[in-house]
Write a structure and sequence with these properties.
Pfam families: Glyco_hydro_108, PG_binding_3. By secondary structure, the chain is mainly alpha-helical. The protein folds into 3 domains: 96 residues, no CATH class; 47 residues, no CATH class; 66 residues, no CATH class. It contains 11 helices and 3 strands; from the N terminus they run αβββαααααααααα.
Length: 222
């Protein structure tokens, strides 16, 4: 039986704490919960309460900003009520919504949980494509059956490729997203060495010819 707590530990590790990157499409986030996507989330009252008692946010990317975010995260981590609403948010909106408790393999359940948190329904579409079912982002009986009938190792290898290829295409289309490639590709099982090669190629933006070569590199990995 798959375990929510195990999967959630991976997700929270990947999501981190408070961030307000102007290039992030989701805007301000706390533990991966984006204010633009979830403006009515009850947790924002805790975040805003702490922010009201600290200095205004410095420019993103500066040492002052990093100190600001670190201070906020320390304060927010001490709020037990906030940490509980974070946990409840993830369980209801992702673990339960995508029927992850019905998946047989823990590694597959954890991967899907991590990717729907990161990419929403698109994360489910990546795994559906790998499993050979309609990639509509809706996890129903057919998707669950296909996932559970697949070899977990082979399924995740294919899903990781599908996800990584999407990230590369997105970064090629919008250079402002290149900065997110390292964290995205780590989630997709791409090695540190390969990520270094990707970022070297992306220093001046990614051409579609470069993307094609990077996809071949990723596909060829053991």
């Amino acid at each position: 039986m798959v375990n929510f707590t195990i999967a959630h530990a991976t997700v929270i590790s990947n999501e981190g704490g408070y961030a307000n990157n102007p290039h992030d499409a989701g805007g301000e986030t706390y533990k991966g919960i984006a204010r633009k996507s979830w403006p009515n989330w009850v947790g924002w009252k805790y975040v805003d309460g702490v922010k009201a008692n600290t200095v205004p946010q410095p420019a993103y990317g500066t040492t002052a900003y990093r100190n600001y975010a670190s201070h906020l995260n320390c304060c927010l981590a001490r709020l037990a009520s906030l940490q509980q609403v974070v946990l409840d948010f993830y369980r209801w909106n992702f673990w339960d919504k995508y029927r992850l408790s019905e998946i047989n393999d823990q590694s597959v359940a954890t991967w899907l949980y991590d990717h729907v948190v990161n990419g929403g329904a698109r994360g489910a579409m990546w795994l559906q494509e790998a499993a050979g079912v309609t990639a509509d982002g809706k996890v129903g009986p057919a998707t669950i059956a296909a996932i559970n009938a697949s070899d977990p190792v082979e399924l995740l290898q294919e899903a990781e490729d599908v996800a990584a290829f999407y990230r590369l295409d997105r970064a090629a289309a919008d250079p402002s997203q290149v900065q997110f490639l390292p964290s995205w590709l780590r989630r997709d099982g791409v090695s540190a060495e390969e990520i270094t090669q990707v970022m070297q190629a992306a220093r001046d933006g990614l051409t579609y010819a470069e993307v094609a070569g990077l996809k071949e590199m990723i596909k060829a990995r053991a």
